[in-house]
Recover the amino acids of this structure.
């Protein structure tokens, strides 16, 4: 089928302005969006910039907005989006789908970079802040006890408590989709909170006490107001909002047990 | 954004004790070890945690014996037999012995392994892994559902940031600096600025992964372009056993995306177009858990005999991998990512339907020759300050065919060993000496790409496709003299043609096109070495199956290939003996 990729480009050596550029391509319904981007760079326009590596949704390189929704270009097939209404999001609000006049016979698919991170070129964004926030939650195990010769014993029930959070591939789709970050760029963001939950909920880890600084503050856990946009866009199907709420509950309990109140800035 | 300046300046000269090229499992483990005492940098063309280790699915083999009785000696033997006796046996022994400690170490560092009902690390069956030297399949593959590689990569990166390992992200290494047989650094291209930088180092380790992108159907990442081996091959280091490239039997039809052997480890069954369990014919004992080379050949044989799913005998026909009898609970708990891939790319649920699969180019058994401490060696001696580990290296623990899970074991065991050897070596090594014009060759290669613009040279997109077609068709699961000769001449012609290639992008900042072209050049060079090594070996062994020489020939060919390429692209072959110190070679039946 014939489709047009309408790519938001920022590749001007002087003005740094973003402009849409149309790329008509012939694709199979089962092709990935990434396949078409690859075709364009190798055969049409070598100046198009984007990141990619594994091409099957596990490395997290190619998150971008496709028809207005954060997704991995390697995990979306054309048949998934050709009939889809475009997504739009007003600042601070949830995304909704809009009716748009599709002019002529063309199927147009909009491709835009992630939000909340500065564009470097075209679909490449600077992820420095995203990774700084990741580091801030101490995303490594702080063991309760010294290991023995063999493995720590952990029941499958204990393992299941944090297993889902370990699926995160740091693609930043949630960071872009989060309405809170539209208005509060200092919010630590959903992904970092998933990594915090991964360790807080691990029976081998000392948990909350090690990560209070990043979590228990107005721009940490408490900035989340349950918009669920992160959960909806997560390409790994992590129930992010639920994990954030579970951590909030743990933290409230933790503070209460010490006769303290949480630092939510209220 | 700055326009390209014609010739790229050297912006910075960095100096470290150790530079690790690549941020996957082997690189990160080595960095953790080396950085304990040496000033260490990880230089990677990708962002952290994007490396292809993260795509490994099914498990990491170690004889923990958590479910079935197991011994490292059995693991070592399976590795040797699985590799069709081209494995260096002492290296396999080290691999199996140290795997046990390495898995416990990963668990202590937080790796979220799936658990047994006793709360121990869960283990499952995998192809070619047996108890008592081949008696029966054994549960040896330690796993975190079907994302074991992802968890290894995450865990090691977590440890690296905890330990303040220094990273240079999106720096693509384009050349190595050699002083005779001593390595003194690398040249890296910084994506963000387009500058070339010199990294001086007492020790350099390459951990750049594989090069499956030279084939049309592959499970490999776009980034898997063999940068390390190609750079060293051009610097005169011979490449070992390049003819042995593994085709994993179960890639998603036409896309090549990997469906883990863990599906068969959990009980999945391969069926031909008639619904027959064809592995009964080819491996009566291990059936669907025979080694990968044997199963890939069985699939191609079934397809060519008209028993594929479509029955037309064409090369893109396929067979079925049936897991429907495992039940929803096992699939959702043990292979959730596979279920996700099937839903995303095939619009099927493996709980309800069989998966259409075909062999996919998966793993390079060959690569940079090293000893058991990760030091790069040629046929005569070891280089000083030059190391390699992981898929880009050839220790050799995989011989002619790697067993499932052993890639992750290799990363962890030999990544760590190389890292600790580096830590010791740099203590007494002298300061690296680097000449002023060290970056000259790299600068010329990049300048040439810019200078070719507008001169109507070769079309890189078309060349990429041509390379993948010829390698897939002519150096695939089955090979013969005629097909390999054709591939070699195709690849050599492409190597010639590459000197005329240009890019469209004139800017310096974030010019990813230049990097893609340099990656293509690396693949072409390795394609030449692969085709030439394959053409030279006149026998069938492991993944190298020749129609014109169908049998293994230990008398003449029980030896490692060492292939060197000159600057004209012609290849000369030398040999290295195989370490046979433990087990005598026997016919390989399962």
């Amino acid at each position: 089928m014939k489709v047009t990729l309408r790519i938001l480009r920022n590749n001007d050596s002087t003005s740094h302005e973003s402009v849409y550029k149309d790329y008509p391509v012939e694709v199979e319904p089962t092709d990935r969006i990434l396949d078409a981007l690859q075709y364009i760079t190798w055969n049409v326009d070598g100046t198009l910039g984007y990141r990619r590596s594994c091409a099957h949704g596990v490395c997290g390189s190619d998150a971008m907005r496709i028809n207005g929704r954060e997704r991995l270009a390697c995990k979306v097939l054309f048949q998934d989006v050709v009939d889809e209404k475009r997504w739009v999001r007003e600042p601070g609000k949830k995304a909704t789908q809009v009716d748009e006049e599709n002019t002529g016979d063309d199927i147009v698919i909009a491709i835009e970079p992630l939000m909340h991170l500065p564009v470097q070129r075209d679909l490449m964004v600077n992820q420095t802040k995203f990774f700084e926030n990741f580091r801030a939650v101490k995303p490594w195990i702080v063991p309760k006890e010294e290991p023995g010769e063999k493995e720590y014993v952990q029941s499958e029930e204990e393992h299941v408590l944090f297993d889902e959070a370990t699926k995160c591939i740091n693609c930043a789709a949630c960071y872009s989709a989060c309405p809170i970050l539209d208005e509060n760029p200092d919010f630590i963001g959903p992904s970092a909170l998933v990594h915090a939950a991964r360790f807080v909920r691990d029976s081998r880890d000392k948990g909350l006490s090690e990560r209070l600084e990043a979590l228990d503050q107005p721009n940490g856990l408490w900035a989340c107001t349950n918009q669920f946009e992160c959960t909806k866009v997560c390409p790994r199907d992590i129930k992010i909002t639920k994990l954030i709420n579970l951590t909030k509950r743990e933290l409230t309990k933790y503070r209460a047990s010490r006769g303290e109140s949480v630092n939510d800035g209220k | 954004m700055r326009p390209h300046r014609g010739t790229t300046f050297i912006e910075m000269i960095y100096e470290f004790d150790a530079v690790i090229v690549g941020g996957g499992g082997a690189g990160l483990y080595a960095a953790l070890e080396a950085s304990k005492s040496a000033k260490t940098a990880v230089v990677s063309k990708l962002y952290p945690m994007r490396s292809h280790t993260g795509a490994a699915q099914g498990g990491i083999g170690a004889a923990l014996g958590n479910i079935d009785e197991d011994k490292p000696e059995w693991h070592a033997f399976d590795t040797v037999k699985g590799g069709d006796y081209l494995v260096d046996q002492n290296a396999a022994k080290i691999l199996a012995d140290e795997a046990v400690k390495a898995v416990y170490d990963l668990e202590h560092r937080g790796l979220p392994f799936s658990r047994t009902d006793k709360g121990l690390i869960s283990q499952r069956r995998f192809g070619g892994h047996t108890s008592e030297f081949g008696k029966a399949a054994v549960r040896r593959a330690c796993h975190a559902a079907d994302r074991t590689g992802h968890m290894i990569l995450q865990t090691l990166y977590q440890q690296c940031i905890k330990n303040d390992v220094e990273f240079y992200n999106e720096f693509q290494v384009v050349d190595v600096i050699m002083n005779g047989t001593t390595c003194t650094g690398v040249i890296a291209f910084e994506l963000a600025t387009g500058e070339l930088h010199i990294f001086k180092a007492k020790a350099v380790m390459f951990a750049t992964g594989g090069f499956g992108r030279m084939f049309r159907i592959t499970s490999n990442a776009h980034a898997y372009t063999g940068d390390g081996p190609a750079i060293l091959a051009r610097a005169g280091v011979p490449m070992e056993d390049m003819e042995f490239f593994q085709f994993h039997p179960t890639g998603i039809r036409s896309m090549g995306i990997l469906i883990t052997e863990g599906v068969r480890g959990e009980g999945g069954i391969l069926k031909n177009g008639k619904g027959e369990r064809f592995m009964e014919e080819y491996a009566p004992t291990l059936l669907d858990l025979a080694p990968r080379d044997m199963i890939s050949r069985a699939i191609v044989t079934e397809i060519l005999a008209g028993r594929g799913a479509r029955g037309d005998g064409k090369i893109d026909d396929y067979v079925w991998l049936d897991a429907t009898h495992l039940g929803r609970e096992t699939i959702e708990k043990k292979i959730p990512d596979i279920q996700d891939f099937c839903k995303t790319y095939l619009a099927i649920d493996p709980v309800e339907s069989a998966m259409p699969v075909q062999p996919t180019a998966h793993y390079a058994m060959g690569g940079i020759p090293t000893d058991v401490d990760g030091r790069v060696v040629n046929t005569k001696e070891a280089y000083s300050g030059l190391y390699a580990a992981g898929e880009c290296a050839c220790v050799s623990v995989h011989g002619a065919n790697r067993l499932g899970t052993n890639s992750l074991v290799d990363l962890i065991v030999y990544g760590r060993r190389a890292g600790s050897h580096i830590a010791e070596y740099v203590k007494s090594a002298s300061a690296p000496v680097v000449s002023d014009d060290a970056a000259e060759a790299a600068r010329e290669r990049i300048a040439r790409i810019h200078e070719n613009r507008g001169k109507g040279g070769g079309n890189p997109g078309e060349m990429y496709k041509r390379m993948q077609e010829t390698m897939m068709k002519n150096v695939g699961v089955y090979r013969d003299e005629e097909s390999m000769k054709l591939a070699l001449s195709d690849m050599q012609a492409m190597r010639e043609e590459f000197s005329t290639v240009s890019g469209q992008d004139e800017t310096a900042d974030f010019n990813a096109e230049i990097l893609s072209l340099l990656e293509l050049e690396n693949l072409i060079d390795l394609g030449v070495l692969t085709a030439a090594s394959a053409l030279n070996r006149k026998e069938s062994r492991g993944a190298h199956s020749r129609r014109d020489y169908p049998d293994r020939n230990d008398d003449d060919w029980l030896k490692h290939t060492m292939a060197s390429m000159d600057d004209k692209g012609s290849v000369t072959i030398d040999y290295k003996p195989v370490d046979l110190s433990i087990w005598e070679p026997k016919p390989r039946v399962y």
Remarks:
- The first strand of chain B starts at residue 10 and ends at 21.
